[in-house]
Amino acid sequence: MATIHFLDVTNRDGVQTARTGLSKFGKTMVNFYLGKLGVAQSEIGFPFLFHEVPYVRANVALAEAGAFGQLRLSGWCRAVTADVEAALPTGLQHYNVSISTSDQMIQNKFRGRLDRDSIIAETVAAVRTARAAGVATVGVNAEDGSRTDEGFLTEFALAARQAGADRVRYCDTIGGDTPDRIRERFAKLASVVGIPIETHCHNDLGLAVANSIAGALGDLDAGQDAWINTCVNGIGERAGNADLLSCLLAFQHGFGLEGRTSIGDPIDMSWARRFAWWASYAFGQPLPLNQPGVGRNAFAHESGIHADGALKDRHNYELYDDDTLGAFPANWHERPGRVILTGEYGGKAGFRHVLDGLQIEVAAADEDLVFALVQLCNASTGRPLTDDELRLIAGYPRQLALLYPGQLDQLG
After folding, report:
1. Cα(68)–Cα(381) distance, rounded to whole angstroms?
2. Which of 93, 142, 201, 367 is 20 to 30 A from 172, comparing alpha carbons?
3. Beta-bridge partners for 4
4. CA distance 1 to 193
5. Residue 271 contacts residue 36 (beta carbons within 8 Å)
């Protein structure tokens, strides 16, 4: 049976959100949480950019050391051979190469620089470059796929497959697709091309989750696996991307979907709250009270009829169980009253006090390195470090040190 997989793009599309941002250490924590949650793949950023290279190398090392479980790391490149060539030395084994395909973009973005033939030629060259280097998988991104003529989209996807692409990403770049339409388009395209068509849906009409579910069902209709792009808490450019948790919950609890579909990733929902609340803290974007699954009102009842029914049997008014999503995080730095913290300007006494309090053990040979990394990571985030952040630093200091080339040389 064809299965559903999740490819989260928080570290690429999510961090492009206007009026917000995330440090390289923060992006590393996204990969940590995606690994704990059991997501298949993380699009970790732009490996051809000079300022991403230390972060990518550190995360490849962390992945190899087991810090992210089975999570696969992938890089996003323009469908430009030079981008792919620049990215390859980082050690990433999974890639997505992207180019615009709609007439709107050809006429009003490229403005004569590219036409349909050259779009295909550039894409084929980029895919072949990656394949010649021996990478494990390559996906091809059809930006503005939802406004791309069906005939050309099919021609583009077939050329990508013949060049060696494993998937084609259909981007609803301006968020204008609708569930019935996208399911039909996915089913037709996946049937003709013979490889999965990956959903990438924006939320300009509030339909990103619905469209992602419908597009995935179109893949399944064609007998292909489905790959869904998501972002934690639905962040992303403009009105955001498809919310990761909402998509997971839909396939687990949506009426008419149970028994018909299967998530091919080892999802552990007990990490859902810790991830969502960490992301809210790290991005500086408060979670709406009614955020599905993890908002403070997601399981709150007040009206007489609802309260009475929920007290008799919570399933009267709750679709899924509160405790399956894990506990709300209770971080050391959030303790009220007198508290000793560790961070950018802290000393060894405070550092040891916090780690002892959290029962985090550090090898004697690594103590100075962990202490320095606590200072550097706190300086990069500009906010107190969370318990999970401190645990990752203490657990993998030599891999995380690659985030800060040259700054730790004096430690030996």
Report:
1. 21
2. 93
3. 226, 263
4. 19
5. yes
Domains annotated on the chain, with CATH: 4-272 (3.20.20.70), 332-401 (no CATH)
Q: Is the pLDDT of residue 290 over 90?
A: yes
Q: Is 255 exposed, middle or buried (0-12, 13-18, 19+ CB in 10 A)?
A: exposed
pLDDT tens digits, 86-130: 999 999 999 999 999 999 999 999 998 999 999 999 999 999 999
Tell me which H or E stretch contains 307: helix 304-312
Antiparallel, parallel or unpaired: β 197-201 and 137-143:
unpaired
> Do the beta carbons of residue 169 and residue 134 sit within 8 Å?
no
Q: What is the DSSP letter of 375?
A: H
Q: What is the largest CA-CA distance in the chain?
A: 67
35/177 Cα distance (integer angstroms): 30
Residue closest to 319 by CA, chosen among 274, 256, 243, 255: 255
CA neighbor of 208 nearest in space, from 235, 187, 188, 184: 235
Show the tokens assigned to 185. 């388009």
pLDDT of residue 406: 87
Residues 210-247 as b/e (b if ≥16 CB within 10 A, e otherwise) read bbbbbbbbbbbbbebbbbbbbbbbbbbbeebbbbbbbb
Rounded (10°) CA dihedral 170, 127, 115, 14: 40
At CA 93, angle to CA 88 and CA 98, rounded to 5? 70
Integer CA distances (angstroms), 23 to 84, 243, 307, 344, in order: 24, 21, 42, 15
